[in-house]
Amino acid sequence: MNQKEIFDNIMSRTSVRNFLDQPVESEKVEMLLHAAMAAPSACNKQPWHFAVIDDRKLLDQIPHFSPYASMAKEAPLAIVVCGDLNKTLEGTEQEFWIQDCSAATENLLLMVNALDLGAVWTALYPLEERYRGMQELLALPSNLIPLNTIVIGYPKKKTTAKDKWDEANISLNGYNHQPKSFL
């Protein structure tokens, strides 16, 4: 893959909330998980666990405790990205699991896009009723904290990503210094 293809994959990634009634092939699920686990993590702790859900009864229950995940009722797949507190750093650095799992999530979302699938990131942590609901639904042990649910499937229609470039969100060598342009 060349630089332009990588850039185009990043720039075309978008949230998809409507899915075809078509299962995601196991080879693609495995590729998604490989991509997620290739993410960087603090001290290479890799404090993640990925709970894959393809059971219709389980998918249908997700919106009961995660109200913005209603699309799970029509999706064929969800992957819950969890932080494994048994694999984290110690003390206040334990919270790095959130960043580590977020990096894994972004890798997963980019791979979704590269495989012509669609997905949407729905948050669980830090809202206790949401992440505890997922722990209960999947009978996860207390050391696995669900960070988010990535709802995945084949998109019903092609969506166009928004251009989110905004130079106002950039400073150069200090907060009040705007770059003239990077492009």
From TrEMBL:
A single Pfam family, by name?
A: Nitroreductase
Report the residue ranges that make up the Nitroreductase domain in this protein: 10-62, 69-154
Q: Does the keyword Nucleus apply?
A: no
UniProt xrefs under InterPro entries:
Nitroreductase, Nitroreductase-like, Nitroreductase/BluB
Quick check: keyword Oxidoreductase in the entry? yes
One GO molecular-function annotation for this sequence? oxidoreductase activity
Instruction: Keywords in alphabetical order, please.
Output: Flavoprotein, FMN, Oxidoreductase
Q: From which residue to which does the signal peptide run? A: none
Coiled-coil positions: none
How is this protein named in the record? Answer: Nitroreductase family protein
